[in-house]
Amino acid sequence: MGKILVIDGDPIQCAVIKSAIDDMGHDCCRAHSGPEGFTRLEGSRFDIVFLASALRGGGGLRDLPRLIELAPDADFVMLAEKADSDRIPQAFTAGVKHCLVKPVPEERIREVVRDLVWQRAARRGQTEASDHEGIVGDSPAFNLCRERLAISAGGVGNVLIIGEPGTGKRLFARALHNRSDRKNGRYIVADCANLPRPLAESLLFGRMGGASTGTDQDRKGLVHLAYGGTLFMNEIGELDLDVQKALFRVLEDRAARPLAPGKESRGDFRLVAASSRNLEDLVARGEFHRDLHYRLQSFLIELPPLRERNGDIELLARYYLPILCRESGMEEKEVEPGFLETLGLYDWPGNVAQLADVLHAALQKARFSHSLGLHHLPRQLRMRRVFQEMDGSGVPPREKGPLPLPHILSVPAEGFPTMKAARQDAVEAMEQIYLRRLVQLSGASIATACKLSGLSRARLYELLNKHNLSLKSQ
C-alpha cells in the first residue's frame, strides 16, 4: 500500500483524487496550501505527491524544489490548469513524473498511480535482486527458502535443493557457494543428466594412467577439482546406481578412488545437490541409494513452483524485463496493466525459466512498439484470460479442471468417435467460445479484435464466417 499526499487548494479536485486513491487501497492525505504541504512532508514519508501548479496565496510550481528536497524519494505529479501550458515544460524540467490537466477524471488518476506504484516496485525489485544474485521474490513460501539458504550458507554439511524444473535450483546453488566460507574456492558443476553413463564414474572421480586404462595420463575428476570449494551436482537423481554408491563412499571417506590402482586423492569439498525428481520415490523403487539420500540432507531447500508464489510473478517480470531489453539492444518498454494481470493468471508449468522465455518472446514481438500489451503474449496466455473473464468467478481454469468436451461422456461404444474427430470437436467448441468473447471485447472494431487475438484480418474473418459470427454480434 502506498502513501500519497495531495497539495491543492481546490476542495473538489482534492476530493476526486482522494476518492480514486482510497478506492485503490492506498493511504491519501490532503494539504490545502504550500506551508501545510511542507509540514506534512516534514512529519511523514510519502511515495507520491500531487501538487497544484498554483495555490491560493502563492506557491505551487515554485515550491517544487523545496518539496523535492523534503521528499527526495517521492514521485511528484503536477496538477495544471488549462492556461498553464507554459508551466508544463518547467514542471518536467524540475522533476515531475506526470502532469495532469484539471479537471482530472478518476480513471486517469488511478492510471497514473498504478504506473508510479509499478515503477517504484520495479526499482525496489531491482535493488533487492542485486542483493540476492538474481534470486527474486517476496512471497512467504519463497522467503522461507531464502532463510534456509542463509542458514545453509553458514553451515558445513551437504545441501539438497529440490524443486520442479525452472524453479531456480542453479541460482540457489551458486548463491550458496558465494555466501559460504568456501567462496574463494572453486565452484564445479556436474550436470548429472548429461554425464555419459559409461564415463560418469571416471569423469567424477578421475582415472589413473596405465596399461589397464589405455592411457598414459592421469585424469583428475570433478570431485578432485572441487577440493577447497563446492561441487554442485545438478539432477543427481539421474546418476546410475553404481555411480551413486561410489559417490556415497567418497562422502563417507572424504576421498576419491580413481579407476585404476593408485593412491587415494584426499581433500575437502562441499556437495550441493539438486533434483527435480522425487528422490524418496526413487529410493522406494530401488533406483536411488538410500544412504546417499540421507547423507545429502544435512540441509534441505525445497523451492516452490511459481504458481504457489503469490505476487512474485509481477516482481519477477519487473526484474527480468529491463535485463532482457538491454540484452536485446532495445529501450525499456512501458507495460500495459493487462499484460501483468494476464501473466498472473497462468500456472507456469515451466516456472521462472518459462516466464523469462515468454517475456523475451513478448519483447521481440514488441520490438517496434513503445509498450508491452496483452497482444504480445503467447496465445495460450491470452486464452487463459478470456476463459477466466467468461467464467466470472475469479477462479482460473486450472483450479476447475479441464474444459468438458461436448457430448463425449454420453456417447455409447458403437458411436464413440476417433481421437481425431473428438479433438476437432473440442477445437471448434473452443474457437466458438473464444470468438464470442472476442466479439464482445472488441466493440465492433476489427483492429481491436486483431490486436487482442493476434490474428490477421483475413484469418479472423475466416473464423468468424466459419462460426456464423460477425463483429456486430452480441
Describe this structure in words.
The chain is an alpha/beta fold. The protein has four domains: 127 residues, Response regulator (Rossmann fold), CATH 3.40.50.2300; 165 residues, Rossmann fold (3-Layer(aba) Sandwich), CATH 3.40.50; 84 residues, Helicase, Ruva Protein, domain 3, CATH 1.10.8.60; 73 residues. It has 19 helices and 14 strands. It has a five-stranded parallel beta sheet, sandwiched between helices. It has a five-stranded parallel beta sheet with strand order 7-8-11-6-12. Strand 4, helix 4 and strand 5 form a beta-alpha-beta unit. Helix 16 packs across helix 17. The two termini are 39 Å apart.
Tally of domains: 4
- Helicity level: 40-55%
- For CATH, the homologous superfamily of the largest domain is named as P-loop containing nucleotide triphosphate hydrolases
Major sheet size, sense and barrel closure: 5 strands, parallel
Give the CATH topology of the largest domain.
Rossmann fold
Number of strands: 14
* CATH domain class name of the largest domain: Alpha Beta
